[in-house]
């Protein structure tokens, strides 16, 4: 015969620190099955972890970070990006590059890669797909998606937020003159690397991201731009610059003529050679 444990009314009181739970375990006593009550502590709500996505990260870096944080096999988030039905601009053709907004995101044991990617894209929509961006893009003859692409170049090329407006002006001036952008950052994206060393062979690669060989903006963003880069894309600093080079940390030189630019590049090379020798 089996017996069910039924606490009598008034004998058990729930407290804020605990609750009475009936544990459906079996205790065999002389062949009889008896249900045993256990007093379990109250479950505490899970504290979310934080995942930081820095400005300028490429989608591949974001995917890898999510895989690590959620402890899923490498490549899981990349696959989810293709199947999650993300709310991207039509021009993106399902590619979330540039729309995985840099921010700090809460993560719990219930978070999935698709959830996190969707939240990032929604955050990008709230911050990038604004009326100010749309109006600024229209003023420069661009779509918001092209502006996000420009902002991603600014994010990669500018050494500091203070330089972003000038970098933006260089890009706008080159586009207005139908000059190739000649941005090392787009070559780095094509070659999946990050370096300041660009060879002549690099500038001859066959890639839509080779802005030495092809005019105009690349077909997609090359990283996740932040708000400063987006603001610079639609409101560049006034100027006639067509060139720039970071001679040393904290010292980016902008030039309106190629002759001036060559002098700055020569100084950059001299300082690099000096640093290597020491």
TrEMBL record:
Transmembrane segments: 20-40
BP term (GO), one: cell wall organization
GO MF annotations, alphabetized: lytic endotransglycosylase activity
Residues making up the signal peptide according to the UniProt record: none
Subcellular location, principal: membrane
Reactions catalysed, as given in the entry: a peptidoglycan chain = a peptidoglycan chain with N-acetyl-1,6-anhydromuramyl-[peptide] at the reducing end + a peptidoglycan chain with N-acetylglucosamine at the non-reducing end
Pfam families, per the entry: YceG (PF02618)
Localization of this protein: Cell membrane
Matches recorded under InterPro entries: MLTG-like
GO CC terms: plasma membrane
Superkingdom classification of source: Bacteria
Keywords annotated in UniProt: Cell membrane, Cell wall biogenesis/degradation, Lyase, Membrane, Transmembrane, Transmembrane helix
Topological category with respect to the lipid bilayer: Single-pass membrane protein
Keyword Oxidoreductase carried by entry: no
Record-linked Gene3D superfamilies: Classic Zinc Finger
Family membership noted in the UniProt record: Belongs to the transglycosylase MltG family.
NCBIfam families linked: endolytic transglycosylase MltG (TIGR00247)
Protein name listed in UniProt: Endolytic murein transglycosylase
